[in-house]
Amino acid sequence: MSPPSSGATFVLGGARSGKSHFAEQLLVASGLERHYVATGRAWDDEMRARIAKHKADRADRWHTHEEPLDLVGCLRSIDGVGRAILVDCLTLWVTNLMMGERDMEAEFASLAAYLPTARASLVIVSNEVGLGIVPENRMAREFRDHAGRLHQMIAAEAADVYFIAAGLPLKMKG
């Protein structure tokens, strides 16, 4: 596995597919100063435990930035040559935007427009949520639809796109 060269790398896969580990390994191999942008919020005890485990796993090898809403602002503040930035993950960001009643299209467009300007090696992780059954409730369907549109926008701007299944990467673009 070789580190990203230039442009953003998008890593997409199902829950527990190995996508975050794959993304981390891409940036560890880069030898660059590593920054981890976490979009998750601790809404309950299970999520608090997951966040604590992720922090412990990364230990002091990563500079961690927790940003549930202003993802582009956070990326701009830490962007720079010689840095590697991992965003994990877009679907949690979509949830936060929905809960905050934000302008989804404007937020998505802002992120897509930022990607070609990034100077750091940037890897973005997200959950593929469109491969299962149609969700039974309106909010879940809206979430799936928002995530699908965002994924298309990010994949279009990314230099490299990987799909991860069972820990195995399939390079789809780049």
TrEMBL record:
<comment type="pathway">
    <text>Cofactor biosynthesis; adenosylcobalamin biosynthesis; adenosylcobalamin from cob(II)yrinate a,c-diamide: step 5/7.</text>
</comment>
<keyword id="KW-0547">Nucleotide-binding</keyword>
<dbReference type="Pfam" id="PF02283">
    <property type="entry name" value="CobU"/>
</dbReference>
<feature type="binding site">
    <location>
        <begin position="38"/>
        <end position="40"/>
    </location>
    <ligand>
        <name>GTP</name>
    </ligand>
</feature>
<dbReference type="GO" id="GO:0009236">
    <property type="term" value="P:cobalamin biosynthetic process"/>
</dbReference>
<feature type="active site" description="GMP-histidine intermediate">
    <location>
        <position position="54"/>
    </location>
</feature>
<keyword id="KW-0067">ATP-binding</keyword>
<feature type="binding site">
    <location>
        <begin position="13"/>
        <end position="20"/>
    </location>
    <ligand>
        <name>GTP</name>
    </ligand>
</feature>
<feature type="binding site">
    <location>
        <position position="66"/>
    </location>
    <ligand>
        <name>GTP</name>
    </ligand>
</feature>
<keyword id="KW-0808">Transferase</keyword>
<comment type="similarity">
    <text>Belongs to the CobU/CobP family.</text>
</comment>
<keyword id="KW-0418">Kinase</keyword>
<dbReference type="GO" id="GO:0043752">
    <property type="term" value="F:adenosylcobinamide kinase activity"/>
</dbReference>
<dbReference type="GO" id="GO:0005525">
    <property type="term" value="F:GTP binding"/>
</dbReference>
<keyword id="KW-0169">Cobalamin biosynthesis</keyword>
<keyword id="KW-0342">GTP-binding</keyword>
<dbReference type="InterPro" id="IPR027417">
    <property type="entry name" value="P-loop_NTPase"/>
</dbReference>
<dbReference type="InterPro" id="IPR003203">
    <property type="entry name" value="CobU/CobP"/>
</dbReference>
<comment type="function">
    <text>Catalyzes ATP-dependent phosphorylation of adenosylcobinamide and addition of GMP to adenosylcobinamide phosphate.</text>
</comment>
<protein>
    <recommendedName>
        <fullName>Bifunctional adenosylcobalamin biosynthesis protein</fullName>
        <ecNumber>2.7.1.156</ecNumber>
        <ecNumber>2.7.7.62</ecNumber>
    </recommendedName>
</protein>
<comment type="pathway">
    <text>Cofactor biosynthesis; adenosylcobalamin biosynthesis; adenosylcobalamin from cob(II)yrinate a,c-diamide: step 6/7.</text>
</comment>
<feature type="binding site">
    <location>
        <position position="88"/>
    </location>
    <ligand>
        <name>GTP</name>
    </ligand>
</feature>
<dbReference type="GO" id="GO:0008820">
    <property type="term" value="F:cobinamide phosphate guanylyltransferase activity"/>
</dbReference>
<feature type="binding site">
    <location>
        <begin position="55"/>
        <end position="58"/>
    </location>
    <ligand>
        <name>GTP</name>
    </ligand>
</feature>
<dbReference type="GO" id="GO:0005524">
    <property type="term" value="F:ATP binding"/>
</dbReference>
<keyword id="KW-0548">Nucleotidyltransferase</keyword>
